Amino acid sequence: MSNAQNFGKVAVLMGGHSAEREISLMSGNGVLKALRDSGVDAHAFDPAERDLSELKRDGFARCFIALHGRFGEDGTVQGALELLGLPYTGSGVMSSSLSIDKVMTKRVLLAENLPTPRYVLLRKGQYSAADVAQAANTLELPLIVKPAREGSSIGLTKVSQLSEMQAAVDLAASLDCDILCEQFISGDEVTCPVLSSNGVVRALPVIRIVAPDGNYDYQNKYFTDTTQYLVPCGLPAGEEEAIQKIVLQAFLTLNCRGWARADVMIDQRTRKPYLLEINTSPGMTSHSLVPMSARAAGISYEALCLQVLASAGLDHQKGALLA
């Protein structure tokens, strides 16, 4: 759609009810400004303050989903928009609900022989102290403990000593009924966005993340300027292409569409990449990685927003083809 008016009235869904509300508002306002600056009739819409049924009543033609986490990235809003018949950006109902669940994502990836760290699942109210200790014994220390369905590193703990394990599990359990204990992969942390264009999916440049003390937590993701983002990533020859290949495979395996971003760890000893998760509604803040990677590929923030908006659709429509 070269003419921005062809998009019709666009709702930028932002805010919402999740633990990532603050980040979603930052993403949404960035997208809103970019779309308006490009001539799109775009309006902010916060599902925490307005009922989604008002989208149809108020004449919106499509939605740009800038919601993160639960009730925005998990298939619930997508299902509501399907019922309303309003095209939306990003993945559909099933792939959204699968991808936000880190345990279900792992099960699908493993079924397709895609590499992901080993894990142990604990369920809230069902694990004992012995189960927690056994998880640490099975995966070996250090390891990662996190809620199965939160993003932005919320509730995530790197456990280095057994004495820290119970508190880490309890923290994750306060946010989710499923607690993911995951093998820690020591090495380079990278991320790779995926973007569709004219019905073709392609991987954008890989970004290598160098955080203070290797701690890429909520604060270092969004509110500090000390984290380094390297693009070009500077990885050894062939590694970037290998990462892009498995990220595209994961994107298609989970039946994602529109856009996404995959987080990957590279084992420092073997140089093998391991898929951590797929984000189907990536951040669009000033610190966000998809705009950074797109810029390295020659795509401005405004052009990125327009391209994502142009890919809006419904589940029954045909998916994209691999480049």
UniProtKB/TrEMBL annotation:
GO BP annotation list: cell wall organization; peptidoglycan biosynthetic process; regulation of cell shape
InterPro entries to which the protein is assigned, alphabetical: ATP-grasp, ATP_grasp_subdomain_1, D-Ala_lig_Van_CS, D_ala_D_ala, Dala_Dala_lig_C, Dala_Dala_lig_N, PreATP-grasp_dom_sf
A molecular function GO annotation: D-alanine-D-alanine ligase activity
Keyword Transmembrane among UniProt keywords: no
UniProt-annotated catalytic positions: 20, 152, 288
Pfam families per record: Dala_Dala_lig_C, Dala_Dala_lig_N
Chain segments annotated as transmembrane: none
Annotated EC: 6.3.2.4
Residues given in the record as Mg(2+) 1 binding sites: 263, 277
Residue sites binding Mg(2+) 2 per the record: 277, 279
Keyword Cell wall biogenesis/degradation tagged: yes
Cell location: Cytoplasm
Highest rank taxon of the organism: Bacteria
Residue stretches making up the ATP-grasp domain: 106-310
Cofactor annotation comment: Binds 2 magnesium or manganese ions per subunit.
Record's catalysed reaction(s): 2 D-alanine + ATP = D-alanyl-D-alanine + ADP + phosphate + H(+)
Keywords: ATP-binding, Cell shape, Cell wall biogenesis/degradation, Cytoplasm, Ligase, Magnesium, Manganese, Metal-binding, Nucleotide-binding, Peptidoglycan synthesis
Predominant cellular place of this UniProt entry's protein: cytoplasm
Swiss-Prot/TrEMBL cofactor(s): Mg(2+); Mn(2+)
GO cellular component: cytosol
Function recorded in the entry: Cell wall formation.
NCBIfam families to which the protein is assigned, alphabetical: D_ala_D_alaTIGR (TIGR01205), PRK01372.1 (NF002378)
PANTHER family the record matches: D-ALANINE--D-ALANINE LIGASE, D-ALANINE--D-ALANINE LIGASE B
Protein name (database record): D-alanine--D-alanine ligase
